[in-house]
Amino acid sequence: MKRVLIISQHFYPEIGSHANRIKNLFILLKKENFDVTIFTSEPSYPNKNIYKKHNFWDEEVLNCEKDNIKRISIRNRKYSSSIFNRLFYYVEIAFKTILLILQDKKRYDYIFVTSPPIFTGFVGLFAKYRYKTKLILDIRDLWPESLKGVGVFNYTFILYFFGILEKILYKKSDKIVINSLGFQNYIQKKAGIANSKMIFIPNGSLPEELVPIKENEINRKKIIYAGNLGLAQNTELIHQLAPLLDKENIQLTIIGYGVKKSQLINSIQGYKNVTVINPMTKKECFKIIAEHDLGLVTLKDSEVFKTVLPGKVVDYLTCGIPIVGIVDGYAKSVIDENGVGTALHTDDPVQILSHIKQLLNDDELRLKMAHNGQQLILNHFNWKKNITKLVEYMN
């Protein structure tokens, strides 16, 4: 039986696409007869208090995995919009994980490390040499490019230095897993990496997670935003859309978390059409998403964000609701080419509202998009199918 060590900052029972990705990876590799261990931090995102509730610990198969899940405690658990505070937070996690690696007596056939943050990537590189084994680098986002994209970190020398570190990681890895095809050309140009060194495993869902489409309950005039309200998401656009939706009597539900949440909620809570729901488990979230007509996705208009596919796109497809995406690049092509919604490269709220109304007034089209979305999950964003690429490599 081959042994795999996963190194990840986030993991079950945390919410968000990062933790969900690693949870699926852990469970599915074990089902494929790998001996899997994970080094991770105690659940704290978006805040540690929510994990005191028993309902977040809803995967019995993982609750029994006491020996193979090693967690480090972090002193600074508060997520901050300050980039420097975040950097210190990342460094603390990296340092403590390295200590865990030094104390560990096991041997592994593969190290699987997920980045960003890039510091976790370098912990994986340290582990590669410590255990004298192969390193699989999982890239979920381009970093430090995404730092530039959010527009709050403009220290050229530090970004240049991080860019060098990023290139080293790409070159020293034995295999690179990417969760977006938009990353392929960037990594190729950045470090001269051949396509054969990369495996495309997108964020996805399990077939059993698909929510049945209720064809007799369409056109409730309800739109939802579910997910991170952070520096990369265009929360200002949601703020501008809220009063327009209110005038049209279109309900807006937000299930959100992240550093921009408080600011956004304070700016729109006066509108009677807005409902804000606190973070919940993925299963609970899917039930609520499925009760809406449309799912909203917003990203800042930056070159780096043209390469990503936000996790909430996959969530909306799984729940059988069409997408209104204020996105460009790879995400736009996925939405448009597969007929699962409408993708707009604009920051004009009036124009966005027009497309929302268009979709809300066409029940037949929305139903077709809903079915297209779930078929897309089964064909391309299916964890059970996509994990075989990684299994084949490791075998």
Automatic annotation (TrEMBL):
Entry's transmembrane regions: 83-102, 108-127, 147-165
Taxonomy, superkingdom: Bacteria
InterPro entries linked to this entry: Glyco_trans_1, Glyco_trans_4-like_N, Glycosyltransferase_grp1
Pfam families in UniProt: Glyco_transf_4, Glycos_transf_1
A molecular-function term among this protein's GO annotations: hexosyltransferase activity
Domain Glycosyltransferase subfamily 4-like N-terminal, chain residue ranges per copy: 22-204
Alphabetic keyword roster: Membrane, Transmembrane, Transmembrane helix
Residue ranges constituting the Glycosyl transferase family domain according to the UniProt record: 218-375
Similarity comment: family membership: Belongs to the glycosyltransferase group 1 family. Glycosyltransferase 4 subfamily.
Stated name of the protein: Glycosyltransferase family 4 protein
Protein's organism: Bacillus salipaludis
